Amino acid sequence: MSDADDAFIRQSFDLIDGLDSLSDPLDVQKTIFDLVARCGFSYFAITRLPQPGERIGPNLLLSVWPEGWLSHYDRVGHYRHDPVVRHCFRTTEPFAWNEVPHEPDHAPQARRVMEEAREHGMGAGYCVPIHDAHGFQGGISLAGERIEMTPRVRRAIHLLGLYAWSAAARTTARHRKPGGRLLSARERDVLSFAAQGRTREETADLLGLSVETVSTYLRNARSKIGTRNTTHTVIEALRLREIVL
Amino acid sequence: MSDADDAFIRQSFDLIDGLDSLSDPLDVQKTIFDLVARCGFSYFAITRLPQPGERIGPNLLLSVWPEGWLSHYDRVGHYRHDPVVRHCFRTTEPFAWNEVPHEPDHAPQARRVMEEAREHGMGAGYCVPIHDAHGFQGGISLAGERIEMTPRVRRAIHLLGLYAWSAAARTTARHRKPGGRLLSARERDVLSFAAQGRTREETADLLGLSVETVSTYLRNARSKIGTRNTTHTVIEALRLREIVL
DNA sequence: CCCGGTATCCCCGAAAACCGGGAGGGCGGC
DNA sequence: GCCGCCCTCCCGGTTTTCGGGGATACCGGG
């Protein structure tokens, strides 16, 4: 309830109001970093959730991050064990790194991730998970040697993070695939029916095609996505947003 | 940037700070309603997303909502066409009802929903969609005859909505199903492998079972969920949160 | 003008999944 | 102690899917 808190909250709201007008991702980055730096953070990053097997690097939307940490993180494969990432799957509320509950299963690797982060100057951090209609999508990470925030400031950063994500996604949108759908319309059609448990024959009837055509679409979809059977293809197509529901 | 805005923002943050200490859902309801009433809203509701075929009624966590509207809404089946609900699937940012883009497909029914809402005293509204690691979960709706909010107030309500959701979910948690899983552990195991494209034989090897056993689990899962084949079962099990990823 | 992608159809043999039975043992509740 | 559920295995027959070959046609870009 201090004046400092109020000032920070006001600045956060002003920043959010201003984000809409920015079109250069670097402007977004600078604007946000300038503000969070004021509460003790030395680093920050806005990142998408990488696909399994993918690295974090190409999924960073914006970042001011310790030299070398990222490549090390990817090389060692920390991502799979990072307790902060794992916690993002479980919570929508922002959290400080040291508040993440321990998972006995991953304890040794998890501890290693956090220790190595500390060695890179990130002894403490704060993370705002981002979720949308399709689930966990990414997050905003803030880190530094030591951090202290009042609950009110944490809330302001929560809100800031949500809008920062939108702004980062919007301003870096040009990097995304152009119209780039992997599957054709028909392939998506048959997969949608498959997801409803339809056989090829039913799908053929419903779409007015021959069973062979439906089979061809399923086969092509399999080979495009690189999946093993229809079930696998449907799941992956869903993850890739090629089909919905 | 007005004083009124600042006051509202401060009150919102105070309210959020106070939510943690409430344990009675009615306290949460009253606390929030008192605040939103001050910016012209006569009604508000916090609701889970109903499963397909389910009604909204039992999914309301908290609500101050026009008499009769809810039962009418359920009876007529407005839910399927409600453009506000549909928009929640597409956006994470809060929005005013009149900002929802038109969907040509649903135009007649969608218009009807909005007109009937207006007749029930809800000529305008504001909605905060709630998404978690599993996607769109529900939302906070605010409504009244007419509303006007500055961007800053909208942001404050955004944040308020997120924490109100947590508080509502927490305080009404006792209503939820006790441990109620539909599938057995083994059934979930085999479905998880199926989702990765494994054949029954591979799954059997991986789990150290016979193919017949795996088949039995798949069969039982099918009959429990009421699905038509493995693909369908996996998709439904995913929707029912029986399996993840 | 050719190439790549899409949309549509065809065939066939092999592999996998599905169906509807059984069956035995364990474990927890009423 | 019985009933219900879970875990595990088995069988025989039917349906569906998979894999790998085809084919024809359209359409748009380099």
UniProtKB/TrEMBL annotation, chains A, B:
GO terms for biological process: regulation of DNA-templated transcription. Residues 176-241 form the HTH luxR-type domain. InterPro entries: Sig_transdc_resp-reg_C-effctor, TF_LuxR_autoind-bd_dom, TF_LuxR_autoind-bd_dom_sf, Tscrpt_reg_LuxR_C, WH-like_DNA-bd_sf. Keywords: DNA-binding, Transcription, Transcription regulation. CDD domains: LuxR_C_like. SMART domains: HTH_LUXR. It comes from the Bacteria. Gene3D superfamilies: Transcription factor LuxR-like, autoinducer-binding domain, Winged helix-like DNA-binding domain superfamily/Winged helix DNA-binding domain. Pfam families: Autoind_bind (PF03472), GerE (PF00196). PANTHER family: DNA-BINDING TRANSCRIPTIONAL ACTIVATOR DEVR_DOSR. This is HTH luxR-type domain-containing protein. It comes from Methylobacterium tarhaniae.
